[in-house]
Design brief:
181 residues; alpha+beta; 4-stranded antiparallel β-sheet; 6 helices; 4 strands; 47% helix; 17% strand
């Protein structure tokens, strides 16, 4: 058994929760992190929607960060919720979406990531499509990156790609996202 330290900001207020668990493997710790974060959000879901993101970090017994779960909320511009942050009127919407895309690409490229290249590509393509349809890019560098992702995935049936093809396409997108804007 290994000792894992879990820390999260999910829950009431700005309280951080920290606890230890003895589990058989890192995989078991990943499953436990997802399960626990889900349970905490179920108990305090309305509070989650007041912030942009919540997460959980899992450390080794030595304090080394093993992985982090991040859950972000993006409210559709069709909602009239005044707390919605990314809307057509938000001049930073493209930049925020690009940040999310970079986070997803980074998580997907981690060794032993449970996210496949196809899943990452589907998610990145969906965000890029939303930005092009809904967010002001005004010819910004952010818009160029989003346009690249949209162009390189246009007409591609991501689910039909074999593992190698998906990896190659994901690497192209990842490389473009990694460049400074």
């Amino acid at each position: 058994m290994q000792t894992f330290i879990f820390e999260t900001d999910a829950g009431p207020g700005d309280t951080r929760f920290r606890w230890e668990a003895s589990l058989a493997s890192v995989r078991d710790a990943q499953v436990e992190a997802v399960r626990t974060l889900g349970e905490m959000l179920r108990d305090d879901g309305p509070e989650f929607w007041k912030s942009e993101e919540t997460g959980m970090t899992v450390f080794s017994a030595n304090g080394e960060i093993l992985f982090r779960l991040l859950l972000s909320s993006v409210v559709s511009p069709t909602l009239t919720d005044p707390t919605a942050d990314i809307t057509r009127d938000d001049p930073d919407a493209c930049r925020k979406a690009l940040w999310e895309m970079r986070e997803i690409a980074a998580a997907a490229s981690l060794q032993d990531s449970p996210m496949t290249d196809q899943e990452a590509l589907r998610t990145l393509t969906a965000i890029a499509g939303w930005v092009q349809a809904e967010a002001p890019t005004d010819g910004s560098a952010c818009g160029d990156v989003v346009g690249f992702v949209t162009d390189v995935t246009a007409g591609v049936d991501i689910d039909a790609l074999d593992r190698h093809q998906a990896m190659e396409l994901f690497r192209q997108v990842e490389d473009r996202l990694a460049r400074p804007t």
